[in-house]
Automatic annotation (TrEMBL):
Alphabetically ordered keywords of this record: Hydrolase, Protease, Serine protease
The UniProt record lists the keyword Protease: yes
Originating organism: Noviherbaspirillum denitrificans
One GO-annotated biological process of the protein: proteolysis
RNA-binding found in the keyword field: no
Entry protein name: Peptidase S41
Origin superkingdom: Bacteria
Compositional bias (Basic and acidic residues): 464-491
GO molecular function, one term: serine-type peptidase activity
Amino acid sequence: MSSKLKNFGLIGLGVIAGIAGSMQFEASAQKHTSPLPLEELRQLADVFGLIKSDYVEAVEDKKLLTEAISGMVSSLDPHSAYLDKKAFKELREGTQGKFVGLGIEVGMEDGYVKVISPIEDSPAFKAGLKAGDLITRLDSTPVKGLTLDEAVKRMRGEPNTKITLTIARKDEDRPIIVTIVRQEIRVQSVKSKVVEPGYAWLRVSQFQEPTVEDMAKKLQAIYQQEPNLKGLVLDLRNDPGGVLPGAIGVSAAFLPKDVPVVSTNGQLPDSKQTFYARREFYTSSRVATSDPLSKLPEAVKNVPIVVLVNTGSASASEIVAGALQDYKRATIMGTQTFGKGSVQTIRQLSADTAVKLTTARYYTPNGRSIQAKGIVPDLLVDETADGDGLNGLRLREADLQKHLLNDKDKDEAARKLDELEEEQRLAALEKKRKPLEFGSKEDFQLAQALNHLKGMPVQLSKSAKIESKKENTINEKKNGNGEKNGNGEKK
């Protein structure tokens, strides 16, 4: 190795070791240290030196080191990430219910950006983007070769600026070109209405800092309009999650006071916690000066509830569904949820940069792990009367590369899609459907939820019927191939 390369290596090693030390500072303060792997750090420094001396053109030290940190963190799991100045700002704005962009939830598939779901009322939603669309170009830049973070950064920008997307849609022969104007996306966290006498619909589209207070106001308005409420539909479909206090507060509105809502477990002592249905776990001094749930009518603790979920229900929405299911406080209806049962903690590195790091797993009050499995509804109901619609095209946590395994059920978490689920995906591709407007007259799952609350029959999904038949066949074989008992019934 040349002396020049050695010098670069030594400088690089010093810088990298310093960064590694600073990133471990918080953990060190909690007595969770381990020796630095010096040999591997020397190799990293050697590569740093090679790039500085031999690469075709000069590269800034800051870029190399930032990308090294970013790659190191993003290699862990799909939800850990390095947040530069812009990304950190956007994260903080997002928890407050606003950001500038197109308004889509995205993932990666075959090197392209895949639309998981357009956010309601966003520019992307109004432009007709659909779940399952593959974005192949951003303006003139091919998406292939970009990381998801890089693609998202290009889609973000200043308000009122344009971006042209080239989209591949599986039911279209030609690429679709759409020009969208970036806007400040203000996600209306909570919507509600009395859908018919005695029955109301309450939708939480994302868990933000104001969510608990907004939900409390909506519930008060519902009871003012309908004092003798007979049933409530809590709609968490396509809710990607958000802040944990929001999930605790929404759960606490319907559960007895002080019961456990969710617990977490990880390496650090601070990650081993239980969160209860108490004010201190769901209020923030920035958005509430008093307990927003204190003025809710007592009837809200006993009103029959159906919680609607689908594959797009993730994280905080799964916490709510899991808690209400464990306490048998609500009937969960819809399709299996996304399965994001991991906790991300923001570790600030400087005034305007941070690392978003997965630090724990979530568990329901009964100790069920949500990760890579999700919440299985009590009643499986498809998105439409003739199938699961666009929901069948959605990705789940278990589909993501490098996803964290379910520590309670690793075999289930690693299981591939079964034949029935693949059939549902193919059926969804064959039928051209527009994104469903939740809460509308055409909302099939909402209609089934109301049927259940009224004690009327519910149209279960094809998968539920097939699984029921399989179970009956297995039981018959176990019981002597369907022998009849004394009453002439199969046993």
